[in-house]
Design brief:
By secondary structure, the protein is of the alpha+beta class. The chain has nine helices and twelve strands.
Length: 334
C-alpha cells in the first residue's frame, strides 16, 4: 500500500466528485462538487502543520548512547487520523514547506478566475504526496464529435522529492484517456520549488492562468489537424515500435512475451475498440490508441489492483506523459 491512497482503518485521505482516470484512488462522492475547505476537512488534508525538525543520530557504544547533530532536516506532519507527529522525508536547510491549506488557497483563486470546479483531492504514500484536481467548465469537441474535458491538477510533495506542480490535462471523455502534447510556445505546466520564495512563485503561477487557455487553444488546433490526417496500419505500428522498441531475437522470454501482449492489445485498440468509432484510421485515433494503452492496459508491478496502480503512476510519475508527448510529436503534421 506504500504507493496508494493514504488510509487509516476504513478511512481514506481522499475525496472525489466523479470518476475519471485517477479517481480510482479513493471513494466517490457521486454527483457533488466540493470546495477547498471540503478537501481539507473531508479529505483529511487539513491541519497537518508540516514543519522542519533538525536531524539527530544516536550511536550506541560500550559506554552508552551518544547523540549527535546531523546535517539537514526531517519534514514532519501531524497525522490527520492519530494526531501524532510523523516524519515524511529528509530535506535541506533551504526547503520551505508549502502547507496543504496554501495548496488549496491557490486553487481557490483559480476557481474564482476560471469557474473551475473542485474534482478530486487525496494523499498518497503516507502523506508524502498530495493532489487536488479541478475540472474547467468548458470542453473541446475535436472533429465535431469527440469530446475532451479540461482539468487542472496541482501536486505537492512534503518529502523533498518534487516541486509543487500545476498541470493542464485534457481528458478524452469516451475512454478517459489523459492527453499530453508539447506545443510550441504554449505552456501546460509550472513547477515551483520549496524555497522561501515559494509563495511568490505560486502567485506568479496564479497570474499565469491565461497561459492555460492559450495551451488549450493550441491543443485543439493541433488535435483538429490530427483528426484530419489519415494514418495507415504501417504508420501506426512504426510508431509503436519507436515508442516501445522491438526485442532482439535472443531477448528473454519474459521480454518477448510482454512485447507480444502489447502488440496484440494495441492492435485491438487500433482496429476494433469502440473508442475508435469516428476516429479510426486517423492520426488522432493512432494517438488515442497509444494513450488508452498507457492509461488502462500497460503492465505495472503491484500486489494490488493493476488499474489502481496505473492511476497512481499516471498522477505521480512522468513516464506516461513522456510516451504520449512523443506519440503526439511523431503524429502531428509539420
Amino acid at each position: 500500500m506504500a504507493h496508494q491512497i493514504e488510509t487509516h482503518g476504513n478511512q481514506a485521505a481522499a475525496l472525489f466528485a466523479r470518476t475519471d482516470p485517477w479517481h480510482r484512488l479513493g471513494t466517490t462522492v457521486a454527483g457533488q462538487a466540493f470546495t477547498a475547505q471540503d478537501a481539507m476537512a473531508l479529505g483529511h488534508l487539513g491541519g497537518w502543520r508540516v514543519r522542519k525538525v533538525p536531524l539527530t543520530a544516536a550511536e550506541v557504544g560500550a559506554e552508552g548512547a551518544t547523540t549527535m547533530d546531523v546535517p539537514g532536516f526531517a519534514t514532519v506532519r501531524t497525522n490527520p487520523f492519530t494526531g501524532a507527529p510523523e516524519a515524511l522525508g529528509v530535506v535541506g536547510a533551504g526547503y520551505t514547506p508549502l502547507q496543504n491549506e496554501e495548496h488549496a488557497d491557490f486553487l481557490n483563486t483559480l476557481v474564482d478566475a476560471s469557474g473551475a470546479i473542485f474534482d478530486t483531492a487525496g494523499s498518497l504514500r503516507g502523506g508524502r504526496q498530495v493532489f487536488v484536481t479541478m475540472r474547467l467548465p468548458q470542453h473541446l469537441t475535436v472533429g465535431g464529435t469527440d469530446r475532451v474535458d479540461l482539468n487542472i491538477a496541482a501536486l505537492n510533495s512534503h518529502d523533498g522529492t518534487s516541486a509543487f506542480r500545476v498541470l493542464v490535462t485534457p481528458v478524452r471523455v469516451v475512454c478517459a484517456n489523459t492527453q499530453h502534447a508539447a506545443l510550441a510556445d504554449h505552456v501546460s505546466s509550472w513547477s515551483i520549488r520549496h524555497t522561501r520564495n515559494a509563495k511568490a512563485a505560486v502567485q506568479a503561477a496564479r497570474d499565469s492562468l491565461g497561459l492555460t487557455f492559450a495551451y488549450v487553444e493550441g491543443f485543439q488546433s493541433e488535435a483538429e489537424r490530427l483528426i484530419d490526417t489519415a494514418t495507415t496500419d504501417t504508420q501506426f505500428f512504426d510508431l509503436v515500435a519507436d515508442l516501445f522498441g522491438v526485442p532482439e531475437h535472443d531477448a528473454p522470454a519474459r521480454v518477448r512475451h510482454t512485447h507480444t501482449r502489447r502488440q496484440q492489445t494495441l492492435a485491438r485498440l487500433w482496429h476494433d475498440a469502440d473508442t475508435q468509432t469516428d476516429i479510426r484510421g486517423t492520426a488522432w485515433g493512432a494517438y488515442q490508441a497509444v494513450a488508452e494503452y498507457v492509461d488502462h492496459y500497460a503492465p505495472v508491478r503491484t500486489r494490488h489492483d493493476p488499474a489502481t496502480a496505473r492511476a497512481v503512476r499516471l498522477l505521480t510519475t512522468d513516464e506516461p506523459a513522456r510516451l504520449k508527448t512523443r506519440a503526439w510529436a511523431a503524429l502531428a503534421p509539420a
